[in-house]
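Researcher: Here's a chain I'd like modeled. Treat it as a single chain, no partners, no ligands.
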Amino acid sequence: MSEQVFTVRAYAKGVDQAPRKVSLVAALVRGRTVADALVILEHVPKRANLPVKKAIESAKANAINNHGLDGATLVISTLSVTTGKRLRRFKPASRGRALPFEKKTSNILVEVAGTLKPKKAPVKKATTEEKKPADKPAKEEEK
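Model: Modeled as a single isolated chain. C-alpha cells:
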C-alpha cells in the first residue's frame, strides 16, 4: 500500500536582503530533509540563514500542526527565492547631488512534502461491570 504524499507551503515576504544573497543560502538546503536543513543552517556563517531557517521552521510547523503530517518524513520539495519590492532611495553626494540606489527585498517560498501520521487505534473503555469499586475497610477507632 503506497502512502499519499502531501505538500504544505510557507512564505516569508519582504525579507530585507538582496535575493541574490538569500538564494546562495537557499541552494545549500534545497532538496534535503527538514531536519538536515535546519542543522546545516545553524552552521552557515551568512546573515541570510536566519530568514531561510524561519521559513523552513514555519513550513514544518504548518505541516505538523495544521495538516497532521509526520515530522520525521518531511522533505523540502521546493525552496525558491524571488525579488520582492524595491525601495528607491537617494544618498547625498558632493556638490549637492543625490545619487539614487535601491533597497532590495526578497520573497522566500518553502514547500515541504511528507506523509500523514499513522492513526492510533482507539482505546477501548472498560465497562462498568469490570470496573467495580473496591470495598473500603472500615476505620478502626483506637480508644
